[in-house]
TrEMBL record:
Name of protein: S-(hydroxymethyl)glutathione dehydrogenase
Entry keyword set: Metal-binding, NAD, Oxidoreductase, Zinc
Co-factor(s): Zn(2+)
Keyword Lipid metabolism assigned: no
One GO CC annotation: cytosol
Recorded family membership: Belongs to the zinc-containing alcohol dehydrogenase family. Class-III subfamily.
Amino acid sequence: MSSAKPITCIAAVAYEAGKPLTVEEIVVDPPKEHEVRVKIEYTAVCHTDAYTLSGVDPEGAFPSILGHEGAGVVESVGDKVTNVKAGDHVIALYTAECKECKFCTSNKTNLCSSVRATQGKGVMPDGTSRFHNQKGEELLHFMGCSTFSQYTVVADVSLVAIDPHAPLDTVCLLGCGVTTGYGAAIKTANVQKGDTVAVFGAGTVGLSVVQGAKVRGCSKIIVVDTNDQKKDWAHEFGATDFVNPSKDLKNGQSIVEKLAEMTDGGLDFTFDCTGNTDVMRDALEACHKGWGQSIIIGVAAAGKEISTRPFQLVTGRVWKGSAFGGIKGRSEMNGLVSDYLDGKLKVDEFITHKRAFSDINAAFEDLHHGDCLRTVLDLSK
Ligand SMILES: NC(=O)C1=CN([C@@H]2O[C@H](COP(=O)(O)OP(=O)(O)OC[C@H]3O[C@@H](n4cnc5c(N)ncnc54)[C@H](OP(=O)(O)O)[C@@H]3O)[C@@H](O)[C@H]2O)C=CC1
Ligand SMILES: N[C@@H](CCC(=O)N[C@@H](CSC=O)C(=O)NCC(=O)O)C(=O)O
Ligand SMILES: [Zn+2]
Ligand SMILES: [Zn+2]
């Protein structure tokens, strides 16, 4: 039996959709069997946190503790936990890896099913929460991580222990944005030397796709973004071209026509990193006839649907999706951490803002300004 006691700490609670988070004291219960309590040191804010807080996530539930791009140190473990121990440095995984379910053993996907159903309901695998506020009200978990709390409890399958030399204030970004985009390029799409690529949306996810395409030696890497402020970053991460569809198109020209003109008929691979369903259609239709593949990464609001003429698929274009870049967190995260430590994977470059955790609502504001890729929050402040 674990001898851990409840911990009182500071968390940012999402009480209501569309409202700022409330930074307050909460109680975090000890981890149960196959659970781990983690002291979160650093977390970043991902666009998906803002999406859920806005109220358009079909799985969004309140009150809850959001956050899923975090790193910290294991404080205590529940019974039957064997993959991590107190003191380990860890990254939280919103895509778990149990290594036993039919998804994990298939080698076809990273979408582990072990805890996904309860995770989507905001509870631990036993159906209960480990978080309460000072009034004794239950607070829900989020994406199996809830990193907007100084202490969180996660399933053991939702954690990976990492090299303790890796700085937690930067590798927290491997918990989502960087891994998602980079993995979508090198794993889901498996882009190759000489391929042509277009990336729609130059946030952390899109620029990480660019980084993957550059590492693989793609011949053309076109970034499409409506914000000119993203142009310098696009080139810094490896883009060969930047197109702003709100000002770089000829009269009457569509972005699909512009991209076809730039690539002799269309791209080998396109990636949606915006979550906009109209952009998803453009990304598919900008693919080359016969073989072009479009990868959807962006998360769209409840009720939104994608459409295109079936002829686009009949004539050989392929629509795919990618979650967490297709990366199996427990098996593959340490490869990314090593690449980062060896200077082969850019991570620090995405950190445009740093703030105290108590300033978390300002970090959500940062997301709406063109000068922000990621804000990293220090949970000790
Ligand atoms: N599938 C997965 O596993 C994951 C999915 N996501 C999703 O990926 C998406 C990107 O995340 P993130 O990089 O953090 O988000 P950001 O908001 O930082 O990046 C999105 C970028 O797209 C730009 N953009 C918006 N509309 C258009 C448009 N019509 N055409 C071209 N560019 C446009 C935005 O510009 P501006 O800033 O001016 O609006 C911004 O630069 C989100 O939908 C997020 O929820 C995130 C992580 C994991
Ligand atoms: N809750 C949403 C779906 C949200 C979604 O698609 N999430 C991505 C990760 S976004 C990270 O920033 C994902 O990995 N999806 C796969 C999964 O199993 O959730 C909804 O219900 O539409
Ligand atoms: Zn995310
Ligand atoms: Zn599994």
